Amino acid sequence: SRVSAPGDDHEAQFGEFPWMVAVLRKEKHDGIDLSVYTCGGSLIHPQVVLTAAHCMADVGKEYKARVGEWDVQTKAEIYPHQDRNVTTIIVHPEYKRNPLLYDLALLILDSPVTIMGNVDVVCLPDKNQLVDNNLSCVSGGWGTKGKFYNLLQKVELPIVDTESCQTRLHTSLGTQYQLHESFLCAGGDPGKDRCRTDFGSPLVCQFPEKKDKYFQAGILSWALACSESSVPAMYSSLVKAVDWIDKIMIDNNFSTSVYKN
């Protein structure tokens, strides 16, 4: 409900995407502990983050989730960001790396984050939610056009129907390529595609019947190019995955009501 009016692109307002998560990989260089930005993600429960499975491919690495981040260059913000260690990574059972399929993972945190002005959970769709080009959608992240930005960025993205998306993909991948049902397409307008640096980031769309409320429709999985391309980016469809998410949440004693609209 905090997302600004569609068309107001570029820099997000503080707290505009309270569900946005920065997934950080722990590294050590010359005895100094570092946190390296790996991917985006979304907060679906105070103790659970949703991201792309391929982002967590570095076996043996340790990760943490940062919520409430906005300007990465300063801590002088209205509310502070919060860091939590990732204790468990649960990858979708049908995930495949090549070609990418069911590119989803749930990250269990060591303790719940505190819901506040810049931190909140995102709504998820039910399995019957229609996601089509009549919806108004937007995505956020710290990288666009191949650059890394200090301030959280946002961009309005149109949903592209499967037939049109596949036609555009054929230009680059050949006419034999078939888009898997686990994906949905968005973007493809000049200057409005998410870039590779934002894998794992959520695509959120307005509920048709609730114009002031948003749900997460997808997770950025892969793209052929950045904003210079007319080819849409591929998002793992949450409509196709919400039953699995529900099951994992229940199996781990987490409530699903927090992300139900």
From TrEMBL:
Any GO MF annotation of the entry: serine-type endopeptidase activity
Residue ranges of domain Peptidase S1 in the record: 4-250
SUPFAM superfamilies: Trypsin-like serine proteases (SSF50494)
Pfam families: Trypsin (PF00089)
Biological processes per GO annotation: proteolysis
Keywords for this protein: Disulfide bond, Glycoprotein, Signal
Cited InterPro entries: Peptidase_S1_PA, Peptidase_S1_PA_chymotrypsin, Peptidase_S1A, Ser/Thr_Proteases_Immune/Dev, Trypsin_dom, TRYPSIN_HIS
Superkingdom: Eukaryota
UniProt similarity note: Belongs to the peptidase S1 family. CLIP subfamily.
Stated name of the protein: Peptidase S1 domain-containing protein
Taxonomic source organism: Photinus pyralis (Common eastern firefly)
